[in-house]
Amino acid sequence: MIDEELHKQFNDAVAFVNGYTEPLPADLLLKLYAYFKIANKNYENPGSRTPLINAFKANALFQAKNISVKEAMKKYIDLVNSEVRNL
């Protein structure tokens, strides 16, 4: 079971990214996308109307496929704290 503190930190990081108004690098967005999807146990195929974007998202998910929900949350939090909050 995911502990409450980790879940709170994850939700705070997601809220921070959702409220962030500056553009973020595409590679960072793809990592955040993959970690978010895994953390939320959402394994559906990407739903973009653009096939190229779907391919990049699918590749990001494929690269992160062997991590657990808890690890995905931690990686998302760490990435936000090290890359997004410092911009």
Features:
87 residues; 68% helix; globular
Question: What do you see in this structure?
Answer:
By secondary structure, the protein is mostly helical. It has four helices and no strands. It has helices at 4-19, 26-39, 51-63, 69-84. Helix 2 packs antiparallel against helix 4 (69-84). It is globular, with a radius of gyration of 13 Å. The N and C termini lie far apart (33 Å). The model has no long low-confidence stretch (mean pLDDT 93).
Intertermini distance: 33 Å
Average of per-residue pLDDT values: 93
Please work out how many helical segments DSSP would assign: 4
Overall number of strands = 0
Strand content: under 5%
What would a concise description of this structure say?
With 87 residues, the protein is mainly alpha-helical. Helices cover 68% and strands 0% of the residues. The chain is globular.
Topology record:
Elements: H1 4-19, H2 26-39, H3 51-63, H4 69-84
Helix pairs in contact: 1-4, 2-3, 2-4
